[in-house]
Specification:
GO molecular function: peptidyl-prolyl cis-trans isomerase activity
Organism: Thalassobellus suaedae
Radius of gyration: 26 Å
InterPro entries: PPIase_dom_sf (IPR046357), PPIase_PpiC (IPR000297)
Enzyme class: isomerase
Number of helices: 6
Helix content: 25-40%
Protein name: Peptidylprolyl isomerase
Number of strands: 7
Strand content: 25-35%
Structural class: alpha+beta
Length: 212
């Protein structure tokens, strides 16, 4: 009986090692986006995916290790239930932008009221009120809860008129100014909080296998 159990254990271990070795070898051959897409289709699990990590947004111990690796490199993490493979598929650097803003809705207020409100907001800021407080008090979108902070965004994430005004902006940090998008009836008070920043991103192929 004991001999049979040992044989079964050896067979199970052998099967696990074979599967693991197969996965590692498969990952070594994957290089192009098309190969990644095809490989994920064969795995047929929502746990297996291509993930984009941003060096500014993702600062876990794992992502810090992944950012240090070269394209093509693989990291393996394992616990008693799962073995996870991370392969660096691509590394890029992109220009990001970030401001704080107060949004005023031209469909709810007439332009005269918006003009008066913006002047009031700017005067309050220049007299010492924090922009965070003013955004929570006056801004008319959900970003008010964040004190108006846009977070880091890429060209193409926002309305083109908004982006172009930010990208072509020549203001200094902590300058306050306005942006109008009349076609949408969107009106903004902008606080310049950051200079444009080049941020590294990595695309990581994540494959999870069960450990039996």
């Amino acid at each position: 009986m004991l001999k049979q159990l040992l044989i079964l254990l050896l067979i199970s271990c052998s099967a696990i090692l074979k599967a693991q070795n197969t996965t590692e070898k498969e990952l070594e051959t994957i290089e192009t986006p098309e190969q990644i897409k095809s490989y994920l289709e064969t795995k047929n699990s929502k746990k297996n995916k291509l993930i984009t990590f941003n060096e500014e947004k993702h600062k876990t111990r794992l992502t810090k290790e992944l950012f240090k690796m070269h394209v093509g490199g693989t990291k393996i993490s394992e616990n008693e239930f799962e073995k996870t493979y991370y392969k660096i598929a691509d590394k890029t650097k992109k220009i990001y932008y970030r401001v704080s803003y107060i949004y005023l809705d031209g469909t709810k207020y007439k332009l005269e009221k918006i003009t008066n409100l913006r002047n009031l907001i700017i005067n309050k800021f220049k007299n010492g009120a924090s922009f965070d407080f003013l955004a929570k008090q006056y801004s008319m979108d959900d970003n008010a809860n964040k004190g108006g902070d846009s977070g880091w965004f890429l060209k193409g994430d926002m309305h083109p008129d908004f982006e172009n005004s930010i990208i072509k902006d020549s203001h200094e940090i902590h300058d306050i100014f306005t942006i109008d998008i009349p076609s949408k009836k969107w009106y903004y008070v902008i606080l310049k909080t950051y200079e444009p920043k080049e941020i590294s991103e990595i695309e990581v192929l994540k494959i999870i296998e069960q450990v039996n």
